[in-house]
Amino acid sequence: MVRLPYLTALTTLFSYGLLFAFGQMRDFFRKLIDWSKSKGKDLKGYAPICLGLEDFYTRRLYLRIQDCFSRPIASAPDAWIDVVERYSNDHNKTLHRTSNTTKCLNLGSYNYLGFAAADEYCTPLVIESLKKYSASTCSVRVDGGTTNLHTELEELVARFVGKPAAILFGMGYVTNSAIIPALVGKGGLIISDSLNHNSIVNGARGSGASVRVFQHNSPSHLEEVLREQIAEGQPRTHRPWKKIIVIVEGIYSMEGELCNLPEIIAVCKKYKAYTYLDEAHSIGAVGKSGRGVCELLGVDTADVDIMMGTFTKSFGSCGGYIAASKEIIQYLKHTCPAHLYATSMSPPAVQQVISAIKVILGEDGSNRGAQKLASIRQNSNFFRSELQKMGFEVLGDNDSPVMPIMLYNPAKIPAFSRECLRRNVAVVTVAFPATPLLLARARICISASHTREDLMKGLDVISKVGDLVGIKYFPAEPPKHVEQDKKTL
Amino acid sequence: MASAVMNMTTAALDWVSVAFDAPLARAVVFGVHIDGHLVVEVLLVAVILFQLTRKSYKPPKKPLTEKEIDDLCEEWVPEPLHPSISEDMKAEPPTLESAAGPHTIIDGKEVVNFASANYLGLIGNEKIIDSCVSSLEKYGVGSCGPRGFYGTIDVHLDCEERIAKFMGTPDSILYSYGISTIFSVIPAFCKKGDIIVADEGVHWGVQNGLHLSRSTVVYFKHNDMKSLENTLEKLTRGNKQAEKIRRYIVVEAVYQNSGQIAPLDEIVQLKEKYHFRVILDESHSFGVLGNSGRGLAEYYGVPVEKIDIITAGMGNALATDGGFCTGSVRVVDHQRLSSSGYVFSASLPPFLASAAVSAVNYLEGNPSVLTSLRSNIALLWKGLSDVPGLTIGSHPLSPIVFLKLKKSTGSSKGDLELLNNIADRMLKEDSVFIVSTKRSVLDKCRLPVGIRLFVSAGHSESDIRKVSDSLRRVATTTLAEHL
């Protein structure tokens, strides 16, 4: 939970107010200058493609700190990356690439198990499959887009996750947007966590069902919402709902928190609602053998109706999957638009996932999988505890590889980002609209390929920059050797 | 006793009559003495007025008790997550055992493949595979992050520049999946209150984008310019408000659902007359139409600046995956922050981006591949001209050759059964792989179903002859009872 100090809230609001005022003043002068210069040309009779206020945030606030986002890299997104240097001649409005790169420690990419770069087991197999099946099948799955690899991966994913059957898609975002309309339509109810990802929100909106939100990770509020909705029925007609689906995520990417899964499942079972678990960030990254939050929290996979996940984060590939009972998968293969109309997943990417899962399960004949899983757990716990000792406000639960560090003030966002880059550490900072306005943060993603030295360097730099920028909101714990001296005295 | 009561009553009555006639305040208002009885009358009138202004009696609403809610929750029975599985739901598509080129291997047998949209024959091309291999060795497979958070790799920026240079537009933006391109672009520009005029035969991706945009959508008859003009006229006639809201026409260059080609010159004329913007989906025409493969604008000789937004999926002619959108700098920059499929999703794997760059380079260097594609399509048209029971419904230049049943069975389910029958028999008996259109229940398109043949520049003349002979033979026998 975020504990926002009162003074910080005031100063943050004041900063935003100041930025807003300056932005409005500049807009006013811009309008004056544009009015004095005659404009029009071929846009006469057309409404502007972007109304004035819609992109106010983009033009006046985001453009100032544009160089902190979308930084291009010239290497694989591994533990160390080559960040391309950019320069701007017009105060950050346009950025140009140079051919210089800086080698930085990568604390921002979703590379939980370290499969991002060329891997000694996976890459030769991937190249072989590329030569055999070529880069794309140019066809949808139901036409000519199903190869041996696709069927093999579906069986493997189903076995790995612990469900009877699975179906693959070429993109994680499309998985959510295209599956939810196929499962529930008009007359159904979707109850989703308030901090769910944009793809789930889009899928829910596209389905035509009614949507209700429950407080983040709160089974008691979920129960309240369920009781109220079942008793009321559909809006206006009060007919009973056709079905109710509750959508939660395994690890919430902006908070680093684990879902309160056992209690939420218990509530859903009591009220006969279906559960949909989005394990985009948790599959492969948590759990003793990498099987996700169900394994970590001791939930039986048969209790979750539909389990969804992506291959981008822990498996170093692209695409998504849905795992559920055989009948649901057969039905989805028949109706889901992403299966019927979208190009099938690229065969080399499928092979990468197959190899990655085999490594995790230990079926490639080595214990690299177990090493990677132990490594990511140790790294995350070590990093988080060290940051908390230094006095940073770090969110997230133990064992979760995602740790947001709270910044709050809008000026600290570019300060933290640029100072870290100057010291060769690449971090990710997130602000509005991905997070609430006052709660800007820097988000660290730990990988199994980070060594202890990498982590120490990262901690060192973050500590220095934290002092410089002033984000150590909590008192730091005194270092251990001081306590020992006191003991000897 | 009685007299005491009588005395009290008379005393009370005397008192009341005195009070009634007592002059109050000795005032004379308009020549009327203010007496006691006036007060009572005024009070009575006040009470009547008060009662008139009260609402009618409604019993107060009682919220449900906990026990009642418990009972309702007990009684409620949800529908199952999936409907009962019918036989046709259990059908699995054939599994390929090699690359999806003009010839592929299914079940150990080599078949002629007309089911992959490999229009330029780039599957299996050596140069593309080499560039992919070097990309895989350098960057790995995935990009492990969205574009905003270190997922932008220099090959993405190179690919965007290459495509913009090829199309002749100022800038372009890359998406990580073909179908998500159009349903992210439309909601980025069209909001609630805008007007969109779309063709009724657009594919599901476009329909989803239109639904997510929450704008007012009006459909016009498939590829019918008269219908489009009438719709535009109706929407803008006498409508002063129309000047202030954004208006779009959404069309596809080559329609997936019918193989028709949109007449871009007429659309541009209409757009300029009624002040609409055009969003054009070129998934099946990029790399196919036009003298150098630059798409519909080049084919009709329309300057590409007149089309406001062009989107395309790269999973067809370019033999890779992903999609792009190009247009003016304003259009492209706006999407970098407000297009959900770009901001909230991981970026395209780098090896697919380098495959796209090599494919565009190949296309620019070998325009003869387009002439082979066109001659293949013409040859196929000739071969299919006398197939019984089926007629060609697509445009002569479309790389998707669309065959419809001459006489429909009356329901699309019945039609689909016949067509699937034909496709299965052709695969089993003649080793020719073709496919029929599959529709999802969520698809709103009501155009007739049919067989789609995806012609490639890599097909040889014997392949084309084989498919037309096989189709003729199988259609004669399968549709004999039906005709």
Please, could you describe this protein's structure?
- The complex is a heterodimer of chains A (489) and B (483).
- Chain A is of the alpha/beta class and 489 residues long.
- Chain A contains 16 helices and 13 strands.
- Chain A has two domains: 47-106 and 371-469, Aspartate Aminotransferase, domain 1, CATH 3.90.1150.10; 121-361, 3-Layer(aba) Sandwich (Aspartate Aminotransferase, domain 2).
- In chain A, the strands form three sheets. Chain A has a seven-stranded mixed beta sheet with strand order 3-9-8-7-6-4-5, sandwiched between helices. In chain A, strands 1-2-11 form a three-stranded mixed beta sheet.
- Chain B is of the alpha/beta class.
- Chain B has three domains: 19-55; 92-121 and 367-478, Aspartate Aminotransferase, domain 1 (Alpha-Beta Complex), CATH 3.90.1150.10; 126-365, Aspartate Aminotransferase, domain 2, CATH 3.40.640.
- In chain B, 43% of the residues lie in helices and 14% in strands.
- Chain B has helices at 2-21, 36-53, 66-75, 126-139, 154-167, 178-189, 204-213, 225-236, 264-274, 296-300, 329-338, 340-343, 350-365, 368-383, 412-430, 461-478; strands spanning 28-29, 32-33, 103-106, 109-113, 171-175, 195-199, 216-220, 247-252, 277-281, 309-313, 323-327, 390-392, 400-405, 432-433, 435-436, 451-454.
- In chain B, the strands form four sheets. A seven-stranded mixed beta sheet of chain B has the order 5-11-10-9-8-6-7, with helices on both faces. Chain B has a four-stranded antiparallel beta sheet with strand order 12-13-16-15.
- In chain B, helix 4 (126-139) packs antiparallel against helix 13 (350-365) and helix 15 (412-430) packs across helix 16.
- Chains A and B meet through strand 1, helix 3, helix 4, helix 5 and helix 6 of A and helix 3, helix 4, helix 5, helix 6 and helix 7 of B.
Major protein interface: A-B, 117 and 112 residues
Level-2 CATH architecture of the largest domain in chain A: 3-Layer(aba) Sandwich
Q: Which CATH architecture of the largest domain in chain B would you pick?
A: 3-Layer(aba) Sandwich
If helices are DSSP runs of H or I spanning 4 or more residues, what is the number of helices of chain B?
A: 16
Shape of chain B: elongated
Helix content of chain B: 40-55%
Largest sheet of chain A, order of strands side by side? 3-9-8-7-6-4-5
CATH superfamily membership of the largest domain in chain B: Type I PLP-dependent aspartate aminotransferase-like (Major domain)
CATH class of the largest domain in chain B: Alpha Beta
| Morphology of chain A | globular
Strand proportion of chain A, as a percent range, falls in 5-15%
CATH-defined topology of the largest domain in chain B: Aspartate Aminotransferase, domain 2
- Corresponding CATH superfamily of the largest domain in chain A: Type I PLP-dependent aspartate aminotransferase-like (Major domain)
Decide which structural class fits the backbone of chain B: alpha/beta
Proportion in helices of chain A: 40-55%
